[in-house]
Structures are given as C-alpha cells and as structure tokens.
Design a protein that fits this description.
Blueprint (H helix, E strand, L loop, with lengths): L3 H14 L4 H7 L24 H11 L3 H8 L18 E6 H4 L17 E4 L11 E4 L14 E5 L9 E6 L4 E9 L3 E6 L7 E4 L3 E11 L1
Parallel strand pairs: 1-3
Antiparallel strand pairs: 1-2, 3-4, 4-9, 5-6, 5-9, 6-7, 7-8
Length: 220
C-alpha cells in the first residue's frame, strides 16, 4: 500500500534530484507554486491531502523523469525486495516507549532526547543516514485516528528543525505528551492542529512547552 508520507516524500526527492524546491518543482510543472508545500498536504482539520494524478503527470513531463524513476523514489527499498514505502531495515535498534508512559518524568532530558531507564527497543526501518537520538513512540488508544491507529509506531527526531505543516510530538511542562500538526509558531506561542477531528486544536505559550520533536516516519 502506498502511504501518504511515501508519495509526498517521493515528490520531495524528485524535486531535490533536479535541484528544485517543492515550490520550484510545482512552478516548473505549470502548477500553483504552493501546490506541493507542506502546509498543503493536510487540510485545516488535519485530514490528508493527496497530489492528483494530473499533477504527477505534469511533474514527470516537466522534469523528463520516467514513471519507473518516480516509483524508485517512492520505494527506496525496492532493490532489496521490500514493500512499497518501506525503507531498508537497519542493524541497530532505537529506544521505544508507549505514549501513555512518555508523560512521566525520567524518560527524556531537557532537550527531548531519550534518557533514563524503562525504554524498550525497536529496529528502525529507515535510511542509513539517520541522525543519532531518534526514538520511537507507540500509539496507544484512538485519540490520533484516523491518521495514526493503536499500535502504530512513530519515529521521532528530537532537535530537528520543524516547519509549519510538520507532524510533531510535543511535551508540555505539565507532562502532557501529544502528537499534532504544527500550524504556527512565534516567539511567544505555538498553535497545534489535532490529528483527530473529534479532539480540539491546542494553543500554548512557549514557556508552557518543554520540547517539540518532528515525526519523521510512521509504521502504518
């Protein structure tokens, strides 16, 4: 199954391959320059937005890329016989923790990196150039439906730059841990969109936030 993250990741990779930004790729294809912006990949209520087949056709025509080339970017593990959208597995493991436990003290340092005892481990099925400090959180419950379901594993990269439209994990100084979409961040506050339309969006003063980390992969 082709995931939402995989197809947008392939578009980003195609843009990079031709020395273009996502907006530059859209412009080259004769599309609205904002068509491939991260902010356009989710609706205001957090639902997934997919690129149209017409947009993909125009992108391939504009770059001269073949469909096979695009599919190779969509599935970087194909050469190893892996399913579409799955990365080659790594030899090392990373820390794993359930969301329900993540709000308790002692599991993270001040920068949001894993620390202390009580972590499990899981193999990280991602590209070999991953940065140190990545960890995994296991979704528990239905509060992140329909995007993430109970049992899904989210790979999180603390310290990574986050931008509007990114999916992030946020921990407040009160100990609440949540997965949201970053809608807006200023020097004073942060606004977050809920993944589940049944849950309200959230807004915090930055002094209420302990750390924000970007979600870079999900096992769906």
């Amino acid at each position: 199954m082709i995931s939402h993250d995989a197809i947008w990741g392939a578009i980003d990779a195609l843009a990079e391959k031709y020395d273009l930004s996502p907006s530059g790729l859209a412009r080259k294809a004769g599309l609205d320059p904002t068509s491939f912006n991260k902010s356009k990949r989710l609706s205001s209520d957090g639902r997934l937005r997919w690129p149209s087949t017409e947009s993909l056709s125009k992108v391939l025509e504009a770059t001269g890329a073949t469909l096979d080339e695009f599919m190779g970017l969509l599935n970087p593990g194909a050469a190893m016989g892996l399913p579409v959208g799955q990365f080659p597995p790594q030899q090392s493991a990373i820390p794993l923790l359930g969301f329900a436990q993540a709000g308790a003290g002692g599991f993270f340092d001040d920068g949001g990196f894993p620390a202390g005892q009580g972590w499990d481990v899981v193999d990280f099925p991602a590209a070999p150039d991953r940065k140190a400090g990545c960890y995994a959180l296991e979704v528990q419950g239905e509060s992140m439906m329909p995007l993430y379901r109970d049992g899904d594993v989210l790979i999180v990269e603390p310290g990574a730059q986050v931008r509007r439209g990114d999916r992030v994990v946020v921990k407040t100084r009160e100990g609440e841990v949540m997965a949201k979409v970053l809608q807006r961040q200023t020097s004073r506050n942060i606004e977050l969109l809920s993944l589940n339309p049944d849950h309200p969006n959230r807004s915090f003063d930055l002094n209420e936030i302990e750390w924000v980390a970007r979600i870079i992969w999900a096992s769906q």
